[in-house]
Amino acid sequence: MVKSYLSLILIVLIGLVPLPASAIKYKGDLETDGSITLPEQSVAPASPASGKHKLYFKDDGAAYSLDSAGNENPIDRAGFKNYLINGGFRLWQRGASFTSNNAYGADRWQHAYGDGTGTTSRQPFALGQTAVPGEPRYYWRHNRTAAATSTNTVIRQRIEGVRTLADAMAVWSFYGKCDLTRTFNLFISQNFGTGGLPSSTVVTGPITFNCGTTWSRHQFPFSIPSLAGKTVGTNGNDYVEIVLQEAGSFATFTLDLAHVQLEKGSVATPFHYRPMGMELDLAQRYYSKTYNFETDPGTATSAGYVEGGASGLTSGGHAIRVRWSFPARMRMSPNINLYSLNGTSGKWTDASNTDQTATPQRTGQMGTNIEVSLTSASDVRVGGHITADAEL
Questions:
Q1: Which of helix, strand or coil describes residue 74?
Q2: Taking the alpha carbons of 228, 230, 235, 236 in that order, is the dihedral positive or negative?
Q3: Taking the CB of residue 153, how many other CB atoms lie within 10 A of it?
Q4: Which residues contact 304 (CB under 8 A, 6 or more apart)?
Q5: What is the arithmetic mean of pLDDT over 28-42?
Q6: CATH 2.60.40 fits 306-389, yes or no
Q7: How many CB atoms are located within 10 Å of the residue 98 CB?
Q8: Where do the structural domains in the chain lie, given as residue ranges?
Q9: What is the model's pLDDT at position 20?
Q10: What is the bridge-based pairing of β-strands 335-339 and 216-224?
Q11: The pLDDT of residue 14 is above 50
Q12: CA dist 1 → 9, 10, 261 (Å)
């Protein structure tokens, strides 16, 4: 009996002694209806053994895992973990197919063909496909119809602010496939903008990868250099840029991309979709339009157009000014393009369906005024469409 009591007391005493962090067992702790307390740390702990990760909290309360190479990987990265906008290729405000070189197609994405030719287009995923998880709606396609003769950019995105991810590990991941096995190079560059005496662009890479003929996920860690000793330009147009570049030998090819993500850390996490309205708000800082979402700029349509008018005008040269406020504050005063209701560039349409010359006035980050010169008399109304471009 005495031995039984002593055993019971010993068990209770052991239960009161706090366990060291190394004694925490994930499986048992997570299966019980209770909680554990982990101390916060001002610096990262020693790196774990190869193939292992350590979970810890910094003194600001943020949770991290540490890999064997000493890279910190933020755990709570949902929502804004992806530094790219429209990495899921859901937004195509400019249209769905493009042949122009060095131009924007899908929102925030610039495509190029070098000295070759091609078509960049939006492609739909079949419902229920499982090659790319998460039931994405679209993917991006680059169809090179005439081969380039030298190394050339295929696609890139510029992220506002050269301070982005400076002196940190970042991992670039995506799903890709080609019509034949092709070799591409990946770069991340830090551009210090213009104005004053900015530092020269710093390029990290290349990382070379082979794209196969079936959907596969690729992930590539980059060590982004520090900005110590650098100078940023004064014009507010500095950026970090990711670049996918074709490497020789050069040929015609088709490249498909989906779920493109750039995040802090060394290990890629699953692609995360932001809510559609939030993603569109982010994109409209750089490009917006009056057309309905699925309507290409330059289309002859009255849906969603901006209009204004005045009464009692007399002949002899008068102007009507109409204000359009952008849906989001733009990165800078944007370049404005105008289209009539009949689809004519540089024009707006009057009440008699005649296209008149129109010009933007007093454009700022929040909106623009459109001025239309008229000579006709009373009860005149004008209307048209607008696109605003403030890309880097």
A1: strand
A2: negative
A3: 19
A4: 290, 291, 292, 295, 385
A5: 60
A6: yes
A7: 18
A8: 2-74, 97-283, 306-389
A9: 47
A10: unpaired
A11: no
A12: 13, 14, 65
